[in-house]
Amino acid sequence: MPVLFEAQYHPPATFFAELVGADSLLVESKEHYRKQTYRNRCLILTAQGVKPLTVPVVDGNRSEKVGITELEIDYRQNWVHQHWRTLQTAYGGTPYFEFYADYLRDIYVKKIPLLFDLNLALLYFYLRCLRMRIPVEFTTEYHPHYDLTAVRDRRDWLTPKGVSDSEPDRTSGSDRVRPYQQSFGARFVPHLSILDLLFMQGPAAGGFLV
């Protein structure tokens, strides 16, 4: 069965766990942008706890009236430098940061104009890293509801609202990632970006998606 997701920025590892055994990934390309979602943010683990990284978009006040494939990233803000420095600080000492750093940096330095295209570039990169050979398709029109016997609709199933290292988000999709050693803290923190799993487990990361 196909799995339907919105395009996300450094998606949670659970996003990819949902693809295990799926026939294809169907990416929502006909929706309007929605604020405060994984479409333009991700969650990473730092020494201070869970931290969101947010991609600013052009004309944020009216952004929810813009089609997702047309939404521009605001490069007038120095967010690329800020995100990269934060990733270096949080993960520079992990076993596999250097293994993936150059590939990620190459995506960032391109300054891809549209949020949807940036998210797709990251998606394809992560599918390669996880060795997931799954067809990626795109919606051709918007449907608020799907026949759940034909499509597993996971749009907005994962949400960054309320996620923290002390109070996991109970409204988000259940975490389907096997616990692994993380950089900070004694207790496993769920719902983090796939970056956290990759930097810690490298090529073995796919084995933690259950």
From TrEMBL:
It comes from the Bacteria. Pfam families: WbqC. This is WbqC-like protein.
